[in-house]
Amino acid sequence: MAKEIGAIIKLQVKGGAANPAPPIGPALGAKGVNIMEFCKQFNARTQEKAGKILPVIITVYVDKSFEFIIKQPPVAVQILEATKLKSGSPEPNRKKVASISWEQVREIADVKMSDLNCFTPESAMKMVAGTARSMGVTLTGQAPFNN
Amino acid sequence: MDYIEVSFSVSPKDPATEILIAELGELNYEMFQETESGVLAYVPADLFSLDNLNSIELMNNDLALISFEYKLIQDQNWNSEWEKNFQPIIVDDTCVVRAPFHHLDKEYLFDLIVEPKMSFGTGHHETTFLMLSHILTLNISDMKVLDMGCGTAVLAILAAKKQAKEILAIDIDEWAVENSLENITRNNITNVKVIKGDAQLLDNESDYDLVFANINRNILLKDIAKYHAVMKKNAFLLLSGFFVTDINSLLEASSSLGFDLQNSLEKNNWAMLCLKKQ
After folding, report:
1. For residue B5, what is the nearest residue in chain A, using CA coordinates?
2. Topology at the third CATH level for domain B120-277
3. % of chain A exceeding 90 in pLDDT
């Protein structure tokens, strides 16, 4: 029989950087979950994406056990990263005028597609392009479809 | 560590909230929880800056109306609910890790009393269990031992109870350092020294016979050369905190330094390696 779910907690945490501070501490601690167990597991599973913001959905069961799934970094996070790569700037504050290519839009859409079951590659790219424009990031090159 | 919680109200919420989170991530904000009206964002108190927040471009454009308020959240033991009634852990029938409130119905050769207070190392996690299990097999009398990322200091305490000569325990987290000191006292041990910091503290160390490091793959890969540098010839290095799938990258790094693999243990996909310095 499936275990009874006590709570579903949605957070966004930097890869490899989970610690028992808020919001992880209070959210899991109040449910009687061993927070240190979650942090160790989350950090070990996200070593490849250390430092990147990752959405995590934690299912806490009534018996205080838990499991969690880790999503791909949000599109806006990936766009920021792409603009920094392009400028080659190690500075944390990106330049005010930034741009990304449609090829980068495709790469970001490909990464995020695994979280977006109902999206076609084209609609995922349009979504990424829309977020980029909202961020003041311009798109360079020819759009691969009527945009 | 104290944290600042910044509560942002974002209208309209999409897509500005996602962009705001990305921008905050660049400003040392570590964790986020979306709310109905925006997002709660968390930053270590010593890294909080109002100027930084106001410099975010998104705060000053017309994509969304954003307001925020913030408050200090003081450090406290968020794990106390679990710690109130956790079960003792028995390792290989000779060692028990238990809280002060547990009463045992039989005696164990090694009785380790730990009150974790939100530090890592109660034996419940596979990696701690594997480390304890392997340490139990070693003769470490009179050895000089180093425990990197000591957490509750449970490994150092076992080493002391197995007659190690002297032990240095290091953790980057202030809570863990305080907790280690409490647990060491609780177990009537006097030959464990605890310091806050990381592998940079090892520059003036040398001649270790045995090193423990239950941390994570990236830190182990980064610091393994520093461990190597403070170890005697034929000394042992016990590594854990990673998955079976990470073993190859650690073996590659360790063999290039001149470590030989002595033993490896696995439990539920977590791994432990015992390496010997040539």
Report:
1. A22
2. Rossmann fold (3.40.50)
3. 71
Contacts of B244 (CB under 8 A, 6+ apart): B266, B269, B270, B271
pLDDT tens-place string over residues B131-174: 999 999 999 999 999 999 999 999 999 999 999 999 999 999 99
Is residue A8 exposed (0-12), middle (13-18) or buried (19+ Cβ within 10 Å)? exposed
CB B151 within 8 A of CB B183: no
Domain A75-142 has CATH 3.40.50.1110: no
Q: What is the pLDDT of residues B61-82, one digit of tens each?
A: 788 999 999 999 999 999 999 9
Q: Does residue B78 belong to the interface with chain A, where contact is any CB pair within 8 Å?
A: yes
CATH level 2 (architecture), domain B3-80: 2-Layer Sandwich (3.30)
Give A 44-63 residues with CB within 8 A of chain B.
Answer: 44-45, 47, 50, 53
Is A24 an 8 Å CB contact of chain B?
yes
Joined together, the tokens standing for residue B17 give 């909230």
Q: Which residue of B has its CA nearest to A131?
A: B15
Span A68-90, average pLDDT = 82
Full-model pTM? 0.93
The sign of the CA dihedral A29, A33, A34, A35 is: negative
Q: Which amino acid is at B37?
A: S
**Mean pLDDT across A92-106:** 75
